[in-house]
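Worked Example 4.2. Consider the chain below.
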Amino acid sequence: MTLGSFSLARLTAAIPAKPRHFHTVTLIAAVVAAIATFATTAVPLPAWAMFLGWVGYSLGAQTRRDGIANLASFLLGLSLGVGTGLVIKLLTPLLGDTAAPFAVFGDVILVLSLRNLPRINNPLAYFLGLISFFASAQAPSGSLLAMLAAAGVIGALGAELSRLLQSRLLPAA
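Applying the procedure from the previous section yields the following structure tokens:
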């Protein structure tokens, strides 16, 4: 399934499955996702944040190096989200309800400007980091940043493990 340059195969570690391998690829992704979810909730961390890290890692990643660069973009986006939460908190007494739109305007300019960086240049991964912060609906703090980052890293590890297992268990094309 593709939507523009986005493909569902990329979410399952970017391993294109031949029809006879469809179920193997699916089963590997499902087992790894279940294990990652168990590990995340056992800690306890939010499973939804783990999945955002998984998707952020996988966005357009064809190699481990691409995935790590995407994870860095995700984590920087998460940090930017926490910083934006602090800016909104500081500006709200002065600007009222317009504080959030002004802060988001600055975020979008910054994130889209970062797409020219050499490796950590995936705006979608940055935005997933921002989404992770705002979806938590919690006040910005270092502990929130650490919690969401840890969940995202578990998701990224799950995505890489899925990619690795799929590539090793499936015969070379």
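The longest strand covers residues 2-3. The beta strands are 2-3, 6-7. Compare this with Example 4.1 before moving on.
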